[in-house]
Each structure stands twice: as structure tokens, then as C-alpha cells.
Give the backbone structure.
Amino acid sequence: MAEAPRNVLWLQSGGCGGCSMSLLCADTADFAAQLRHLGLHLLWHPSLSLPSGQEALQIIEDCLAGRTPLHALCIEGAVLRGPEGTGRFHLLAGTQEPMMHWVRELSAVARHVVAVGSCAAYGGIASAGSNPTDACGLQYEGDQLGGLLGPAWRDLADLPVVNVAGCPTHPGWVLETLAALADGARPFGAEQLDALGRPRAYCDQLAHHGCARNEFYEYKASAEKPSDLGCLMEHMGCKGTQAHADCNIRLWNGEGSCARGGYACISCTEPGFEEPGHPFHQTPKVAGIPIGLPTDMHKAWFVALASLSKSATPPRVKQNSRADHIVVPPMIRKTRRK
């Protein structure tokens, strides 16, 4: 007898909906079929489901009453606690109750809770600046434990909130995480999360890994304007060597990433990325040395390596790094011995 599908309920809080839009860019155009293939049943999504109004509220009530098992509660967007802790900046339509009330109630009955995107995980863009809406993540405020549910909160499987961070998050990260959480034969454990609650399946990598500009990085042959092919770290603000994500290994829709599109990585999977303290397209420096060095490299090592690399940069690499197309192709050498 086939196992019953695992139920997923998706609610949107304070955000732009970008993670839902990203999810629709999954490798298959038939998103519903992919969910079914993974053994997941989407109970309701505010943008993708047909039920609305009282029908949607009934689905939520059935979950709270236990009539419908809730295996994964997905929250997209930051939780808005203002004004003055009432949560009334964001009410769930048709209820006159703050969204944060429903998130708390549903989190208590869900097998797992998933924060979809950096806003739901850490506060993200919604919490930037003076944060007038008192936005926060489900279990974090920035890089500090807390948030709506509090640092000690655990789900029915004794897991914290699973933070599928990113702005927007990658569709593969979401689907893979939900599939892992729903797999009763191979339960998802705390060891599969990193120190910030992110699935290690994607955040044990860096955005730097697999970057198409890595040859330029190795020689410190840097881009000087947005259209250049060179490395974006030294002058253009790229934080790919610090961002925990496999963006350049697991490409969006099989073919794209920020760096491949000519944009510097802004480290959107990290808490606090929304306020780096400098323009996103600039690399802050002290005495000509970038402040944001690779996560596991000492400054002295980087300076020594950069000096050596620049002195050994082939003319081909140097010229191509400052152009918007390949100016000098790799030379052809005979590969067979005489």
C-alpha cells in the first residue's frame, strides 16, 4: 500500500514573494508534479492554490484541530511583530488575528517548521534600517537566536526551525529540504544543519565553488567595471568566498547564477547581508586590502598569495579580465610527445 503524501502548508508573511517566484523556476515546469514525485502534498499556498477565503481558513483550522496532519509548515517572509508587539501590522485576511499568532499556533502542531528565505530565517530585507515593523525571523534576529519562537523552541521531531536561507532562496534547496524532512525512513537530524540552522546539503559549499570566474580569482585578475569578465572580489563587492551556498554548482534553472549574470555575490544566505555597511557593488578596503577575505584565509596569507599571483598572471588572463568578451583565447599546444 502506497504511503500517504506528507502535507505541506505554506504561508507568506512580511516579504516580496520572491522565494515563491524562485520556486516556480525549478528544473521542471510542472511544479505540482515534482511535489507529488517527492511524496509531498501542498495543502495551501496563497499564490499557487485555488482555495481562498473561508476555504483556505478551513484548511488552517483542520491542521490546528489535528484533522489534517501537518508535516511541514513553510513560512516565507519575516514575521512583523509591530506595532508594540501586537503584530497588527500584518493580519491574516478574514481573521482579524495577527499573522504571528497563526505562525505560533501552527508551529506547535507541525512536525517540522521551515523558514523559506533569509527574511523568514533572520529578518532579512524586511528588518533593515530602523525596522519600523519590528520584523524578525522565526528563530533568529540577525545572527542572534531569538525571533518569534525563541531560542529554545523545537518541533515535534526535536529540531529547531530549518532555515533555507537565500534572497531569494534556490528552488532546489527548498524541494530537497522538504523531501528530506518528509522521508520517514531516513529522518532528518540536527547534524544535517549548520550553526545557523541551514541545511548542510547546500551550505557546506561556498558560492565561490564552481564560479566561472575562478581562473581570474586565482591570478587576482580583477574586473574594474560591471561588464568585465574578471574576478569581482577585489573591486566590485563580490562575497562569494564568504557566502555559504552552492549557487555556482547547483545553477538556477540549470544554467544561471548571480556571478554568471555579471553580478557580484552579496552573500544573501548570511544573516545581516542586507546592511553590509557599504554599497553592494563596492569592495571596502584597508590599505588597499579587501576587508572581506575568504572565510578560512588569514590576511597575511592572502596578501602574499595575491602578490605572487598577480606577478604570475598570464597576459591572456589579464587582458580578458578587463574586457566584456574573450579577447585572447588560450593558446594551442601539441599534446602528443615526439
Summary: Residues 147 and 216 are 41 Å apart (CA to CA).
